[in-house]
Amino acid sequence: MKLAGVLPLLLLICNSLAAGQNPPQNATPAKPGEDYSGMYSFLQEGEFVQITVEDEGHVTGFVSRYGDSESDRGAFLDQFFKQGKLDGTKLSFTTDTVHGVWYDFTGTIERGEGKTQEDEAYYVVKGTLAEYRTDANKKVTSKSHEVTFKSFPRDV
User: Fold this and answer.
1) Contact 131/101 with Cβ under 8 angstroms?
2) For residue 8, which phi and psi values (nearest 5 degrees)?
3) 127-132-137 Cα angle (round to 5)
4) What is the pLDDT of residues 28-87, one digit of tens each?
5) Do the Cβ atoms of 102 and 95 come closer than 8 Å?
6) SS3 state at 57
7) Quick one: which of 126, 122, 123, 106 has its CA closest to 114?
């Protein structure tokens, strides 16, 4: 008779424990690409690009670089993204024009050689960077080259 009273209670406890093993159905999964947000190296030591992945692959950010023209040599310049997009691992962005210079990037974000996000190069941005310059006569010149930008450690 005692077993008949304890058995339903035992089944209730087992069911409760088993239900606790499954994650809740309404848990929000991490958004693809949100881990890619952060600071990455740019062309020279001390320069960087900030990438922020927002909803639906919209990317915002900016390039912080040293000026290299007569009027801004050595000054630190910020060039915000005019547009940016992440589609899976495919990244593209175009910066605003600052002192006649703007950048256009097309490439990918991939896992790098860093073991954890606290390491440099946990992610790398690889692709083609085009630099456009407008001279005093309003003539635009461009040059492109392959680049690899390494993520900075997350605790920095």
Assistant:
1) yes
2) -60, -35
3) 170
4) 444 556 689 999 999 999 999 999 999 889 999 999 999 887 777 778 899 999 999 999
5) yes
6) helix
7) 122
